[in-house]
Structures are given as structure tokens and as C-alpha cells.
């Protein structure tokens, strides 16, 4: 399959056909790796919540209480006093 380079600002890009995007699950962010044969394009797969545990442990080590600070600044007292009805 042949395609042309197109100008994108000061760079150049290519348009990938929808069928190829679907076949190789390419959406959003992709990884580009130069190889001796050419350019390898692969999808970037990020694990949800990746690194959260490490960040929580670092915060706790620094004396923070992330679970306590999660809702800091939010208060529903006004809602309870003016809008909520039993």
C-alpha cells in the first residue's frame, strides 16, 4: 500500500486508512520505532490507574493522607441544610 506524505504545519504526516487503524487497534496515542526496514507503528496501551499505588505510597511517606485529602474543599453542608428533605 502506497501513500503520500502531507504537510502538517512545519512537519509532515501520513493518512492511515480506516481499515488499517481498526485492524491494528490504532487510536489516540501510538508508539513510533525506527527499524532497519522502516518505521514500526504500534498502539500505546496504558493500564488504567498505572502507577497509582506508587504515588499513594510516596504521598504517605511524605506525611500526606491522600484518602483524607481526596474530598478536601468539597462540602455538602449547604446542600444538607437547604435542599435535602427527609
From TrEMBL:
SUPFAM superfamilies membership? AbrB/MazE/MraZ-like
Family matches, as Gene3D superfamilies: 2.10.260.10
Q: Which residues form the SpoVT-AbrB domain?
A: 6-49
Task: Supply one GO molecular-function term.
Answer: DNA binding
Specify the superkingdom.
Answer: Bacteria
Q: Which protein is depicted?
A: Antitoxin MazE
- Please give the organism: Hymenobacter psychrotolerans DSM 18569
Amino acid at each position: 500500500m502506497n501513500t503520500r506524505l502531507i504537510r502538517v504545519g512545519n512537519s509532515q504526516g501520513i493518512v492511515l486508512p480506516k481499515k488499517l487503524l481498526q485492524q491494528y487497534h490504532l487510536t489516540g496515542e501510538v508508539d513510533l520505532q525506527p527499524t532497519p526496514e522502516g518505521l514500526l507503528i504500534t498502539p500505546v496501551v496504558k493500564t488504567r490507574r498505572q502507577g497509582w499505588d506508587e504515588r499513594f505510597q510516596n504521598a504517605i511517606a511524605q506525611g500526606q493522607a491522600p484518602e483524607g485529602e481526596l474530598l478536601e474543599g468539597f462540602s455538602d453542608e449547604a446542600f444538607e441544610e437547604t435542599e435535602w428533605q427527609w
